[in-house]
Amino acid sequence: MGLEDYILRAYLESSRGERKGDRLEEVEAIRDYILRGKKVVVATRNLDKFRVIREVLLEKVYKGREVDISRIEIPTEVADLTRMPALSKGLIAVDTTDAHIVIARGRLGVPGSGSMLLILDSKGRILSGSISPPSVIHRRSVEDTVREELLEALRRIGI
After folding, report:
1. d(CA 115, CA 128)
2. Co-location of 47 and 28 in the same domain
3. Are residues 51 and 95 in the same domain?
4. Are residues 66 and 107 in the same domain?
5. Nearest CA to 154 among 33, 50, 68?
6. Domain range for residue 4?
7. Looking at CB atoms within 10 Å, which of 46, 100, 112, 151 has the fewest?
8. Do 31 and 64 belong together in one domain?
9. Please, which domain of life does this record's source organism belong to (predicted)?
10. For the sheet containing 126-132, what is the strand order?
11. Among 100, 90, 111, which residue's Cα sits nearest to residue 44?
12. Rounded to whole angstroms, how far apart are CA atoms 105 and 146?
């Protein structure tokens, strides 16, 4: 079964009150979807964030495979006006590109709430993600924080 099949099955189970949690084959379907991705778009114009994300993807996920990793060329700052800026940035990329995978990183919620990194599919569905505390709390560089957020999001699905 593909990712779409697992999503449909889970929806139907939930609607009947039968859903008892995630299954290994669902996690494997997410992992396979990401590993098969041929076009990845990072929802940022920040070259430092893009460089770190690209390095991690090439080193840990795609390991020498042919994959197009690019960033969007439109401002994502408008997403900071929304309730979930990281998700809004990702949806901007979904709506404006033909990416198989979108990686978005931004503020979690209100100012001071920390940051969130999300991995989305071509329909804007969240495949994995991670969060970090506010930078005034953890005091790490943005590059180190982005790297750790992406690695955590990948570890959550077995990559």
Report:
1. 14
2. no
3. yes
4. yes
5. 33
6. 1-36
7. 112
8. no
9. Archaea
10. 68-71, 39-42, 101-107, 115-121, 126-132
11. 90
12. 8
The owner of tokens 């990793």 is 69
Tens of pLDDT, residue by residue over 84-127, are 999 999 999 999 999 999 999 999 999 999 999 999 999 999 99
At 86, list the tokens: 């990281």
70, with CB counted inside 10 A (0-12, 13-18, 19+), is middle
- CATH number, domain of 114, equals 3.40.50.10150
pLDDT digits (tens, 9 = 90+) for 20-78: 999 999 999 999 999 999 999 999 989 999 999 999 999 999 998 999 999 998 898 89
Q: Are residues 57 and 126 in the same domain?
A: yes
Compute the C-alpha angle 42/72/35, nearest 5°: 35
The Cα-based distances of 38 to 65, 142, 153 in angstroms read 9, 27, 19
The neighbouring-strand residues paired with 116 are 106, 131
Q: Let me know whether 43 and 24 are in one domain.
A: no
- 4: CB partners within 8 A, 6+ apart: none
User: Taking CA 107 as the corner, what is the angle to CA 97 and CA 11, rounded to the nearest 5 degrees?
Assistant: 65
Residue type, 133: P
